[in-house]
Amino acid sequence: MDKVMIIGAGLAGVESAYQLAKRGIKVDLYEMRPGKKTEIHETGYPGEMVCSNSLGAMDISSGLGLLKKELEVLDSFYLKQAEKFKVPAGNSFSVDRHRLAKHLKEEILKIDNITYIEEEIKNIPEIDSPIIIASGPLTSDELAINLTKITKRRNLFFFDATSPIVDAETINMEEVYFASRYDKGEADFLNIPLNEEQYLTLVDDLKNGEKVSLHDFEDDKFFEACLPVEEIARRGEKSLSFGPLKPVGLINPKTGQRPHAVVQLRQDDIKKGFFQLVGFQTRLKYGEQKRIFQKLPGLNNARFERYGRMHKNTYINAPVIIDNFNKALEYDNIYFAGQISGVEGYVESISSGLLTGIFIAKKVLNESITHPPIETACGSLLSYISSADWKNFTPTKFTFGLLPDIELKEKFKGKKKEIKKIKKTMRAERAVEELKKWIKTEKI
Question: pTM of the prediction?
């Protein structure tokens, strides 16, 4: 029986390895860390989340809520382990990311059929057995260069960023308050209220603060779903107050009023020792971050456990490289999974890795398989990235816009927003139902 080689033990690689191993297929799972570090990871453990500690909303009528529900139905290894390290975050699925990553390595080492190898792979070996390239957005320069032999073009990338993390003991709790938007959750976020003057000062500081230079490209190239906070500020005076700093649903219990804007901090670990500034991914220089963010109420003496950082995010031009099973069009044994394949986001990466593992398992076991239904979140996402406009392709998150529409069997009276939510819920229910049928039919 073929042994599968997986390059990269991120969220996708870990998930692929599990799905193959549970079906009796041997896997060599390679991870270059801790021997070779990236510019953004903090540990040498597999499956480490870096840009955020959140796996998104739980509500099935949200994109990530539906995708996580489908992954639960598909027996996702990563999500099962993540459940053990959840931290309070309102209606979001957030985790203690360092403890989770350490636990993942411990669990992987226990699994029969998985050999975990801490070694950098610089070249794609010329072998006949299956290879999954799941090296992620932080693919090493050497491997990225050698991938051009497969992609037949320079690897594309955009710039991504992480948010600062603050030591909880250095926050002045007298000036902030705990609350979740519209009281969803148990007051899980720490909120910094800003009046109009404080908000405008922050906007001005962000726009004029000294930034880290990007030497790789002449023009800055950012992913719209993860813009640096200073880039949002540049788009208009009110951009932040209608974006990550919107105050709606966050009444200050100390004043009984809604602030002009609110900076939210999300718990980063189980013990509440650290909090991450939500939506404050940035490429400001460290000294500037300290100067600007310490002006915020409650953060005057804050100690930063980690400053926000920029990093390059590598991905292939999926529509010209892979089919809708994540297999390279011109290579029978090479597959891509995770963010390098053209999906964007933690949950999307888990989904990509999970399905790729299943596809290869079926192939190794000489069993046929059809593509997941287009009515499902996981199926529609894979179909989209392999068929999108290749001239303007950028990594894609799952949204309900990728699902076929659904007709209402009866007329609903109400606002368009309410009807839209009803249709979302119906499409989500249909997605789960179609996925279960597919699992049964294909004997997944």
Answer: 0.78
